[in-house]
Design goal:
The structure holds two protein chains of two kinds.
Chain A: E1 6-17, E2 20-31, E3 35-39, H1 46-53, E4 61-66, E5 71-72, H2 78-84, E6 86-89, H3 101-108, H4 115-119, H5 125-137, H6 153-166, E7 171-175, H7 183-196, E8 201-205, H8 209-215, E9 218-223, E10 226-231, H9 233-238, H10 240-247
Parallel strand pairs in A: 3-8, 3-9, 6-7, 7-8
Antiparallel strand pairs in A: 1-2, 1-4, 4-5, 9-10
Helix pairs in contact in A: 3-5, 3-6, 5-6, 6-7
Chain B: H1 5-8, H2 11-29, H3 40-65, H4 73-101, H5 110-122, H6 140-164, H7 169-188, E1 200-201, H8 214-241, H9 243-260, H10 265-291, E2 293-294, H11 301-314, H12 319-337, E3 344-345, E4 350-351, H13 353-371, H14 378-384
Antiparallel strand pairs in B: 1-2, 3-4
Helix pairs in contact in B: 2-8, 3-8, 3-10, 3-11, 3-12, 4-5, 4-6, 4-10, 6-10, 8-10, 11-12, 12-13
The chains are: A alpha/beta, B mainly alpha.
Chain lengths: ~250, ~400
C-alpha cells in the first residue's frame, strides 16, 4: 500500500495455464523489513505468485518491480533474481542431501556465483565463521560434518532456512514452513522467521492458523488468483467474504 | 574444506601411486625396455585402455557429478583422434612423396609435394585434391590445437543451444546421440574430406621415426597415456574437490534449487560439457596412434553407450570408479571378443563368447544398476568401512540425473 518505500511491488499481474486463470489481476506490495503472511484455499494462486516473483513463471500481463530503482523482475532469470536478493524456501525441504550441512551452507553463502570464480574459490576464515554462526542460529551447530540427507525433516527445514539466511536476501519467500513439523519445531521456526524479518522482508505462505497467529503480522488473503482481503489476523477473520471462501469451510 | 587439496582428496595420492607402479611394472616387462614378458600388442592394448580410462573420467564428471547423461562423448574422443591423425598421415605421406620426387631432375615445388600427398591420401576415395579441412595438416602444433578446439567448439555450440533451452534428462541424451550419429554419417561420406569409411590409417608410425621399432614406440605412447591419465585425474579431482564440485553435485540432484540460490545452472553445465569434451578429445588423440586406424565407425552411438556402461559399472560420482570400470570392462571385453576365452560346451549347445559377450555385459549392467548401484568403486567403501546413510529410500533429488539413495556414501 506504500507506493514509495515498497521493496517489491506487484501490480495487475495475470497468468493463465491452459485456459485456467491461476492469477487474476493481482496486486501486492511489501515494504523493507516487513513480515507478511499469505493465506488462501488450495488453488488460490499462492505458489504461482511465488513462481512469478522468483522468475519461474512468466505472467501474461502486469508488472513486478523490485528495489529502490523499481527494476522489473520480469525477463530476469531465476539465478539473476536470486542474486538481486530474492530468496525462496520451498514447501518440501530441498537441501542437497548428498552434501554435508557445512557444504550446503557454504553453497548458499553470499559470494561470487560465476563458474570461474567458484572454481578458484576457497572458504576464508570469515566464511567459515559465518557458517558456524548460522548453524548455531538454526540449531545445527553439532551437525556440520553430517550429510544433510540424514537429518530429520524438521532439521532439513531449518537447514534450508539457514541457507536462505546465508544468501542474505532482502526478501524471503517461505512456502508452508510448518508443514509436517512437531509443535516444538514449529515454535523454533516461528522464532527463526520473526528474527529474520527484523533485517529483511519475509513473506510466509501458510495454511495453519495457529502458526500465523504466532507470527503476529499483517495477513493477505488470496482467493482465485487475486487479493480478497488484507489486514491483521483479527481483522480478516471477521471479514464475511473471507469466512465464506476460506475459514467457513 | 579448510584442509589442503591432497588431504581432502586422499584418493589422488593412492591413484597416482598405483598408476606409477603400474607404469613401472609394464615398462620393466615390456619388449622395448624390459624383459619382453608383455608383448608389444598388449602394451598397446594397455596404453589404449589408459586413454579409455581418461575419457571415462570425463564422462563421470559430466554424468556422475553433474547428472547429464551425455551419449556423445565418444564423438569428441574420435574427433580428437581424427585431428591428430590428419597430421600423422599428412606428415608421413609427405616424407614418402619427397623421397619419391627426389630422383626427378628438378627439385619438387611445394605445390608438387602437396599434390603428391593429396593423390597418395585421397586416391583411395577417387580424389586428387587436398580438401580445405586439411589446410593445417602439415603443422603438428596446428593440428594439436585443433584436437582441443574442434571438440571444444562443437561442445560449446551444441551445449549452448541445448542447455539454454533447458533440455534435460533423457531428451538431452537423445540429442547427444543424434549429434554423434550425424557426425558419423557426415564422416562416412567420401566428399567430407576425411576419406569416408576408409578413415585414416597408418597412424601407429610417427613421421621421421621409421627407425624406432614399434616395441619402443608403443612404450612412448603408453607413458604419454599414463601421464595423460594422471594429469587428468589431478585436474578432475581438483575441479570436484571444492565448491565447484559442490555446485555440480547440487545441479545433479536438484537443479531448480541451485537456480534459486543464484547460480546460473546453464553456465555450469556448458562449462563442464565443454571441458569434458576437450578431455575426451585429448584422450582420443592419445588413443588412435596406438590403435593405428580411425574410421567413422568409431563415432557410432554404441561407443558412447559403452562409455556410460563403463562408468555405471565402475560407479558414478567417484573418479576412480570410472577408471576402474573402464579398465575392467574394456579389458574383459577384449578378452571375450578377441576369441581368447575358451568356448563352453554344454553338450546340446556351445557358448561362443564372441556371440554371447554382449549379452553377458548387458546383464551385468542391469545387475549392477539394480543390486550394486555404487558399482565396482563401492568395493573401496567396503575396505574403508564407509557405510551408506539411511535416507529412508528417497532419491537424493528431483532432477533427472540425481543420485539414487544406494549410490551415495557417508563421509
Amino acid at each position: 500500500m506504500t507506493g514509495m518505500n515498497a521493496l517489491l511491488e506487484v501490480s495487475g499481474v495475470s497468468v493463465t495455464f491452459d485456459g485456467f486463470r491461476a492469477i487474476n489481476n493481482l496486486s501486492f506490495s511489501i515494504a523493507e523489513r516487513e513480515l507478511r503472511a499469505i493465506i488462501g484455499p488450495n488453488g488460490a494462486g499462492k505458489t504461482t505468485f511465488m513462481d512469478i516473483v522468483t522468475g519461474k513463471t512468466r505472467p501474461d500481463e502486469g508488472k513486478v518491480l523490485w528495489g529502490e530503482k523499481s527494476r522489473s523482475l520480469l525477463g530476469m532469470s531465476e539465478a539473476e533474481i536470486a542474486k538481486a536478493g530474492v530468496g525462496r524456501k520451498f514447501q518440501r525441504p530441498t537441501v542437497f542431501e548428498d552434501q554435508t550441512v557445512q557444504e550446503n551452507l557454504l553453497l548458499a553463502l553470499r559470494n561470487p556465483r560465476g563458474p570461474l570464480s567458484v572454481l578458484f574459490w576457497r572458504p576464508t576464515k570469515a566464511d567459515l565463521a559465518r557458517v558456524d554462526e548460522l548453524a548455531q542460529e538454526i540449531g545445527l551447530a553439532d551437525q556440520l560434518p553430517r550429510k544433510s540427507g540424514e537429518l530429520s525433516h524438521g532439521q532439513k527445514q531449518w537447514l534450508e532456512i539457514g541457507m536462505l539466511l546465508a544468501q542474505e536476501p532482502r526478501l524471503l519467500l517461505v512456502d508452508e514452513p510448518a508443514a509436517g513439523m512437531t509443535l516444538g519445531e514449529r515454535e523454533h521456526t516461528t522464532t527463526l522467521l520473526k528474527e529474520a524479518a527484523r533485517t529483511r522482508a519475509v513473506v510466509v505462505v501458510e495454511h495453519d492458523m495457529d502458526f500465523i497467529r504466532r507470527l503476529d503480522c499483517k495477513v493477505t488473503v488470496l482467493h482465485e488468483g487475486s487479493v480478497l482481503a488484507e489486514g491483521t489476523l483479527d481483522h480478516i477473520t471477521k471479514n464475511p467474504q473471507v469466512i465464506e471462501v476460506y475459514l467457513g469451510r | 574444506m579448510t584442509t589442503s587439496f591432497l588431504r581432502r582428496t586422499p584418493s589422488v595420492l593412492w591413484f597416482l601411486g598405483a598408476l606409477a607402479l603400474f607404469t613401472l611394472t609394464v615398462t620393466l616387462l615390456s619388449e622395448g625396455y624390459g624383459t619382453g614378458t608383455i608383448p608389444t600388442s598388449f602394451v598397446k592394448t594397455l596404453g589404449m585402455t589408459l586413454c579409455l580410462c581418461l575419457v571415462a573420467m570425463a564422462m563421470d564428471l559430466i554424468w556422475g557429478y553433474t547428472g547429464i547423461l551425455s551419449l556423445g562423448h565418444m564423438a569428441f574422443f574420435a574427433l580428437g583422434g581424427y585431428m591428430l591423425g590428419m597430421w600423422l598421415m599428412y606428415a608421413r605421406t609427405e616424407i614418402i612423396v619427397v623421397q619419391a620426387l627426389a630422383s626427378s631432375p628438378l627439385p619438387p615445388t611445394p605445390q608438387e609435394i602437396r599434390d603428391g600427398v593429396a593423390v597418395q591420401i585421397f586416391g583411395v576415395v577417387g580424389g586428387s585434391e587436398l580438401p580445405w579441412i586439411w589446410a593445417l595438416a602439415h603443422s603438428f602444433w596446428a593440428q594439436m590445437a585443433l584436437v582441443v578446439l574442434v571438440p571444444g567448439l562443437i561442445a560449446l555450440i551444441f551445449g549452448w543451444l541445448a542447455f539454454r533451452s533447458r533440455v534435460t534428462g533423457v531428451y538431452l541424451s537423445i540429442l547427444t546421440q543424434a549429434m554423434t550419429l550425424a557426425l558419423a554419417l557426415w564422416l562416412f561420406q567420401n566428399d567430407t574430406g576425411l576419406r569416408g569409411n576408409n578413415g585414416l590409417s597408418g597412424l601407429q608410425n610417427l613421421p621421421g621415426l621409421d627407425a624406432v621399432p614399434q616395441s619402443v614406440m608403443s612404450m612412448w605412447f603408453f607413458w604419454a597415456s599414463a601421464a595423460g591419465l594422471g594429469l587428468g585425474y589431478l585436474l578432475c579431482a581438483w575441479v570436484v574437490s571444492g565448491k565447484f564440485g559442490s555446485v555440480l553435485k547440487a545441479i545433479r540432484d536438484d537443479e531448480a534449487r541451485v537456480r534459486f540460490l543464484g547460480y546460473a545452472v546453464e553456465h555450469y553445465k556448458l562449462f563442464v560439457f565443454t571441458v569434458t569434451a576437450v578431455i575426451a578429445g585429448l584422450a582420443g588423440a592419445l588413443y588412435y596412434p596406438q590403435a593405428g586406424i580411425i574410421n567413422p565407425g568409431e563415432l557410432a552411438p554404441i561407443a558412447s553407450i559403452y562409455l556410460a556402461v563403463w562408468v555405471a559399472i565402475g560407479g558414478r560420482g567417484r573418479l576412480y570408479g570410472a577408471v576402474i570400470g573402464a579398465a575392467f570392462v574394456s579389458l574383459v571385453s577384449s578378452w571375450f571378443t578377441g576369441g581368447r576365452a575358451p568356448d563352453v560346451n554344454l553338450g546340446f549347445y556351445t557358448i561362443r563368447w564372441v556371440d554371447w559377450w554382449l549379452i553377458v555385459l548387458g546383464l551385468s549392467f542391469v545387475a549392477v544398476t539394480i543390486f550394486a548401484p555404487k558399482g565396482l568403486g563401492g568395493l573401496i567403501d567396503l575396505i574403508e568401512r564407509r557405510r551408506t546413510p539411511n535416507r529412508h529410500g528417497a532419491d537424493l533429488g528431483p532432477s533427472k540425473g540425481s543420485f539414487r539413495e544406494g549410490e551415495a556414501a557417508a563421509e
